[in-house]
Amino acid sequence: MVDLTESGAVSPGHGRHGQSSGSCKKTSKKSRTRRSKRGRRRRSKKNRNNKTPPPYLPPEAEEGNIEYKLKLVNPTQYRFEHLATQLKWRLQEGRGEAVYQIGVEDNGLLVGLTESDMKASLKTLKRMAEKVGADITLLREREVDYDLDRNTRKIAEVLVRKVPDDQQFLDLRVAVLGNVDSGKSTLLGVLTQGELDNGRGRARLNLFRHLHEIQTGRTSSISFEILGFNSKGEVVNYSESRTAEEICESSSKMITFIDLAGHHKYLKTTIFGLTSYCPDFAMLVVSANTGIAGTTREHLGLAMALKVPIFIVVSKVDLCSRGTVERTVRQLERVLKQPGCNKVPMVVSNPDDAVTAAQQFAQSACITPIFTLSSVSGESLDLLKVFLNILPPLSNSKEQEELMQQLTEFQVDEIYSVPDVGTVVGGTLYSGVCREGERLVVGPTDEGRFLRLKVGSIQRNRSACRVLRAGQAATLALGNFDRSLLRKGMVMVSPKMNPTICCQFEAAIVLLFHAKTFRRGSQVTVHVGNVRQTATVECLHGKDELRTGERAVVRFRFIKHPEYLRLGAKLLFREGVTKGIGHVTRLLPPSQNHDQNQNHDQNLQEP
Question: Region (Disordered): which ranges (predicted)?
Answer without folding.
Answer: 1-62, 585-607
